[in-house]
Specification:
Largest sheet: 3 strands, antiparallel
CATH topology: Beta-lactamase
CATH architecture: 3-Layer(aba) Sandwich
Helix content: 25-40%
CATH class: Alpha Beta
Order of helices and strands: EHEHEHHHEHHEEEEEH
Oligomer: single chain
Structural class: alpha+beta
Distance between the termini: 11 Å
Shape: globular
Number of helices: 8
């Protein structure tokens, strides 16, 4: 996609698990309901005992998490940063409950938005992308990536290489391609053997500076690190092809 215009696809178009690319939709829904202006932090959320229990359970499962403590206060922006940079699965659940009262209602809204955006081959089963039933195609993920990038706060957050929190300290963005070849985001997502990435970069096409958005799904790796690395390489190669 170049400056919002779709240019085509290559490879299998069968839906595959999105992994953490689902968090693009999660962030989009939150920002649509509770918009943030540039420099605005938004309302506060106080971490509950249930949030900590979910964190502890996901640590046991080996999920991607951001540590939280009972009574800790986080702003909407901080929750979005924890959702999108280190890809906190526990934060996805926390922000979903904050925004819509409970996870099922939030997931229902995810699917409603997907339908509205014409994402006809997408199903969301959870706000984090942990479930393999949360699946989509590259074309559909291009659609949500494009609309999410229309929010200035979203663009700013996904372009951050790191962020500092009072409790956990400094946490890094999982997208190590940031800053290379004009790359300014957007989101990585990987399960054990599947690596996905949505990238945005400013490139020069026909002597004009344009925003290129690309999505690569289903890159194989022998483990979670291998699949993430495979997705990062494939994403960078895609951007460099422009």
């Amino acid at each position: 996609m170049i400056d919002g215009q779709y240019y085509g696809q290559y490879g299998n178009s069968k839906p595959v698990p999105t992994a953490s690319l689902a968090k693009m939709m999660t962030a989009f829904i939150v920002l649509k309901k509770y918009p943030l202006s540039k420099g605005e932090d938004g309302p506060f959320y106080t971490v509950t005992q249930q949030d900590v229990a979910i964190y502890n359970e996901e640590v046991k499962q080996g999920d991607s998490v951001v540590k939280v403590e009972v009574g800790e206060t986080l702003t909407e922006r901080q929750m979005l940063e924890a959702l999108l940079l280190p890809s906190g699965d526990n934060v996805a659940i926390m922000i979903a409950k904050w925004a819509y009262g409970n996870v099922p209602q939030f997931v229902n809204q995810m699917n409603t938005e997907a339908k509205r955006l014409g994402m006809d081959h997408t199903n969301y089963a959870d706000p984090a992308g942990v479930s393999e039933l949360t699946e989509s195609t590259a074309v559909d993920q291009l659609k949500i990536a494009s609309v999410a990038m229309s929010f200035s706060v979203f663009r700013e957050i996904v372009n951050l290489q790191k962020v500092t929190f009072p409790i956990v300290g400094t946490i890094q963005n999982t997208n190590s391609d940031l800053g290379q070849d004009g790359i300014i985001g957007i989101k990585t997502g990987n399960l054990v053997h599947i690596g996905n990435i949505a990238l945005a970069a400013y490139r020069s096409v026909n002597h004009k500076r344009v925003l290129v958005i690309g999505v690569v799904l289903g890159q194989y790796g022998q483990n979670v690190y291998g699949s993430l690395n495979a997705a990062l390489i494939a994403g960078k190669n895609l951007i460099e092809s422009f």
